Prior knowledge:
18 helices
Amino acid sequence: xxxxxxxxxxxxxxxxxxxxxxxxxxxxxxxxxxxxxxxxxxxxxxxxxxxxxxxxxxxxxxxxxxxxxxxxxxxxxxxxxxxxxxxxxxxxxxxxxxxxxxxxxxxxxxxxxxxxxxxxxxxxxxxxxxxxxxxxxxxxxxxxxxxxxxxxxxxxxxxxxxxxxxxxxxxxxxxxxxxxxxxxxxxxxxxxxxxxxxxxxxxxxxxxxxxxxxxxxxxxxxxxxxxxxxxxxxxxxxxxxxxxxxxxxxxxxxxxxxxxxxxxxxxxxxxxxxxxxxxxxxxxxxxxxxxxxxxxxxxxxxxxxxxxxxxxxxxxxxxxxxxxxxxxxxxxxxxxxxxxxxxxxxxxxxxxxxxxxxxxxxxxxxxxxxxxxxxxxxxxxxxxxxxxxxxxxxxxxxxxxxxxxx
Length: 406
């Protein structure tokens, strides 16, 4: 018995067991997702609207001004249309909800496998934290298999891209990143961090080429809709100023509704967003490369970037965007849920504070409808996390290993 207990403790705390623990968690998640599908009633929110939106394309319309569903007009880029057209046909024109749930359960497992590989490569988090991450994912299971939102698909493509980045495949990774943006624009929250990483690894010229590739891919994906009505496509699918409903906000419930809707409030959040990004870029992400100006004078990369650095920069970039968001809706939790343990165990915090922040964020996202105190709790937890990440000493971005850059 003592040997079994010692083995369990070692497996929970020793990173050499990470792969084994990940496989055990993947097996657990197979049964857990099936159990959720079989025992918890499906809740219709956006699936029928998604199917109605892509059905318009099936019926021959490529004009975004005419594509809409039960919840309003189509507001996602072309990649969303293509992926959900596949779901439309596979699920008997969207009618076979149970099959769609099984598909999204498979997507959940794929998402988890991609996240596990990032954690294993970065070597920051002990295995027991991954167990906690899986056991606390009540809302995430709901977003995937009980709600069938498009957010998880965008995040899967993003995690695929990050996995390619840590392996040195920057060009293919950028193509996948652009594909993720074409499903949902929230992926752009990772873009500032990605820009820094591209400059650090590839230099300015190849960075420009990769960014151009992302743009070309967006044009190619949107071509059928751009040729029909470019203004409708761009204004609908890339509308950065879209107004959100106060009744759905998770993060600003304690504000008066008029303040929530006030453009001056939105501008102040944008200013805070840009200020935080600039501060982290100048004093945390690029210090080992001589600061931001040095990135534009380096012709060739001086070192291969470590997985730890790549993941940290991207996840922090996204966190800053979440903190400064004009509104967060419940499905948006999937935008950063799987990044939180990494960021907390990167930050110089006592373990008890890490778990307190993780629990506080989980509680805030599971209060429905949101309340003044749940929104305030979310901001307090965010403030503790971003403050701790700022206090962390900058580390070298390079890795001892030598990987070919693509």
